[in-house]
């Protein structure tokens, strides 16, 4: 033991404003707190627990693999990784997949891949990436530079150069921002942290056309909105177009740390042996769980149920807004990535929901994020709406 003066800083670095809640057990859409109280979870670990807590298929996959082999590194072939990669290739636009541990790491590779593509095409000056106001791509130095917001970047300069942020849904600005130095456009089809803002299908189609016309790569960040959240496996599928590169994480591991970069063969042409790597990325344990998740979430019948439940939830949320105009303004989102634009401060709504044993997630633009497990029961949707109603009534009574 080291002899120290009493430290004022806690053992866990205090970078989070944590709620005074501690959970000991989870099953489906419900969490049990230390005091035994049960909470209905509409956050799902911020869109991570795609199949809820302790799903039997994921527990079985994790347990079986844990008893055999956890980690060997990418010095060797990993059959579980190859299986999951093939599943993703079979069900998406992608020709190849690189596995990471997180969405932030996926963003790092997507940025490197786009720049390396143009370098290998004899265009080394094409390094700039166009991003969008309100975007969130992780918390690495490159990712915060891509987002560009003061909240993300203040105090962390100098920032990595090469990113141009433009206003969300400003088509003229997009055209003007793409120059002979632009290598890629990076966008979330549905902004999560930015306030559950959905890019209209026609806008995604237009963006694809602009990129094709200018030889610019199109990168989709589907870390939060992908893996079945919208009722399709990936949100961009609704627009009938595909990206060149896509970042995936959160729901792909169902709670196990796992991410991926999906790419066409063309966009990945510069990524040869030695150009990128990961010690843990794609290890047997993570990929075994990921394959179990995709085996369920990738089924058409499962995705149809997500769309149905999303419509049911949205209908109830619209009614909630109509009954409580002093608390809620509008409903946003699609499938089970939903948001309530609030009139009252969204942090107050989060706290009022805590008082009803309901877990929600705040977002930018004064939005309350609702990101339940994709297999949430209809009865739990009804219960969630009841608890949101009670939270709104309590807020109205306090003002």
Q: What's the structural domain tally? A: 2
Q: Name the average pLDDT.
A: 96
CATH architecture of the largest domain: 3-Layer(aba) Sandwich
Give the spatial strand order of the biggest sheet: 4-12-11-10-7-5-6
Residues in β-strands, percent:
15-25%
The biggest beta sheet, please?
7 strands, mixed
Number of strands: 17
- What low-confidence regions span 5 or more consecutive residues with pLDDT below 50? none
Q: Please tell me how large the radius of gyration is.
A: 21 Å
Order of helices and strands: EEEHHHEHEHHEHEEEHEEEHHEEHEEEH
CATH topology of the largest domain: Aspartate Aminotransferase, domain 2
CATH superfamily of the largest domain, called what? Type I PLP-dependent aspartate aminotransferase-like (Major domain)
CATH class of the largest domain: Alpha Beta
**Amino-to-carboxy terminus distance:** 52 Å
Number of contiguous helices: 12
Shape: globular
Please, could you describe this protein's structure?
The chain is built from 12 helices and 17 strands. By secondary structure, the protein is of the alpha/beta class. It has 2 domains: about 25-50 and about 300-399, Aspartate Aminotransferase, domain 1 (Alpha-Beta Complex), CATH 3.90.1150; about 55-295, Type I PLP-dependent aspartate aminotransferase-like (Major domain) (Aspartate Aminotransferase, domain 2). The chain has a 7-stranded mixed β-sheet with strand order 4-12-11-10-7-5-6, sandwiched between helices. A 4-stranded mixed β-sheet has the order 1-2-3-15. It is globular. The protein starts with about 20 loop residues before the first strand and ends with a helix. About 50% of the residues are buried. The model has no long low-confidence stretch (mean pLDDT about 95).
């Amino acid at each position: 033991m080291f002899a120290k003066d009493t430290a004022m800083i806690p053992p866990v670095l205090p970078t989070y404003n944590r709620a005074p809640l501690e959970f000991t057990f989870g099953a489906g859409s419900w969490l049990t707190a230390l005091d035994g109280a049960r909470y209905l979870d509409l956050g799902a670990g911020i869109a991570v627990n795609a199949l809820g807590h302790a799903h039997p298929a994921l527990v079985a996959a994790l347990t079986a693999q844990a008893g055999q082999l956890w980690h060997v590194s990418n010095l060797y072939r990993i059959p579980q990784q190859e299986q999951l990669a093939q599943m993703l290739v079979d069900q998406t636009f992608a020709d190849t997949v690189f596995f990471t541990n997180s969405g932030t790491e996926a963003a790092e590779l997507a940025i490197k891949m786009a720049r390396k593509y143009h370098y290998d095409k004899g265009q080394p000056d094409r390094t700039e990436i166009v991003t969008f106001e309100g975007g969130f791509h992780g918390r690495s130095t490159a990712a915060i530079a891509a987002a560009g917001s003061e909240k993300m970047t203040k105090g962390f300069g100098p920032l990595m150069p090469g990113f141009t942020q433009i206003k969300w849904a400003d088509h003229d600005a997009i055209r003007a921002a793409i120059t002979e130095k632009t290598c890629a456009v990076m966008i979330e089809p549905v902004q999560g942290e930015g306030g559950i803002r959905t890019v209209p299908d026609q806008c995604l189609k237009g963006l694809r056309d602009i990129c094709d016309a200018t030889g610019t790569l199109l990168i989709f960040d589907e870390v939060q909105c992908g893996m079945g959240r919208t009722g399709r496996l990936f949100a961009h599928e609704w627009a009938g177009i595909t990206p060149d590169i896509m970042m995936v994480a959160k729901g792909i591991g169902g709670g196990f740390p796992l991410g991926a970069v999906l790419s066409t063969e063309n966009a990945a042409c510069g990524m040869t042996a030695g150009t990128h790597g990961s010690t843990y990325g794609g290890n047997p344990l993570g990929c075994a769980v990921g394959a179990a998740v995709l085996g369920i979430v990738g089924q058409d019948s499962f995705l149809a149920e997500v769309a149905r439940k999303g419509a049911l939830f949205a209908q109830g949320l619209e009614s909630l807004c109509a009954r409580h105009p002093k608390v809620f303004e509008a409903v946003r989102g699609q499938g089970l990535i939903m948001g309530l634009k609030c009139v009252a401060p969204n942090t107050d709504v989060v706290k009022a929901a805590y008082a009803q044993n309901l877990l929600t997630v705040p977002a930018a633009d004064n939005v309350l994020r609702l990101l339940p497990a994709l297999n949430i029961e209809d009865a739990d949707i009804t219960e969630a709406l009841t608890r949101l109603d009670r939270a709104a009534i309590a807020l109205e009574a306090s003002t």
